[in-house]
Design goal:
The chain has 165 residues and is an alpha+beta fold. 19% of the residues lie in helices and 42% in strands.
């Protein structure tokens, strides 16, 4: 695990402030999915879950320190119901309890509080982009603590720019 280092003058900064600076300044790595031929960018200090532990077409990158966890994932799922972009956006917005929705060209972005089977997870948010390609949905998500909203700005911008091909 890589920890966000503390310089002498930064000792009074909170972890979200240190993370904001680290994410803004770090080199981004690229992961290429061999199964579906897409690329995703993630911070160089995030740990990658081994492909052998993931389903086909999936990837996971995370940062964890002092109970602060940021997780960036990608996955591919079948559009078994042949949903249009609008139908899928409505369905997933409902399923994920999205508080914000944005439709793009062949894609949509949803965000809101994270939920589990028992209800809203206090202090946790998500940001997700769904890209439609034929009978598939390519999805990239970011889950993070609310207090890290500013820290993950660059990651959300990377997701906004994400093109599958």
């Amino acid at each position: 695990m890589i920890y966000v280092s503390v310089h002498e003058k930064e000792n009074d900064q909170s972890l979200p402030q240190k993370l904001e600076q680290a994410i803004r300044l770090t080199r981004m790595k690229e992961y290429h999915d061999d199964d579906y031929d897409y690329v995703v960018r993630y911070p160089s200090f995030f740990e990658q879950t081994a492909d052998s532990l993931m389903e086909k077409g999936s990837s996971r990158f995370c940062f964890w320190q002092d109970s602060t966890e940021i997780v960036q994932t990608t996955f591919v799922e079948q559009n078994t119901d042949s949903l249009t972009l609008e139908q899928a956006m409505a369905k997933y917005a409902s399923d994920l309890h999205a508080t914000q929705q944005q439709k793009g060209d062949g894609c949509f972005i949803l965000s809101g509080h994270l939920y589990s089977e028992t209800g809203q997870i206090t202090g946790r948010r998500y940001y997700a982009k769904f890209v439609q390609h034929r009978k598939l949905w390519f999805v990239q998500t970011l889950a993070y603590p609310e207090e890290c909203e500013r820290a993950v700005k660059r990651l959300k911008e990377e997701i906004d720019k994400w093109k599958v091909w």
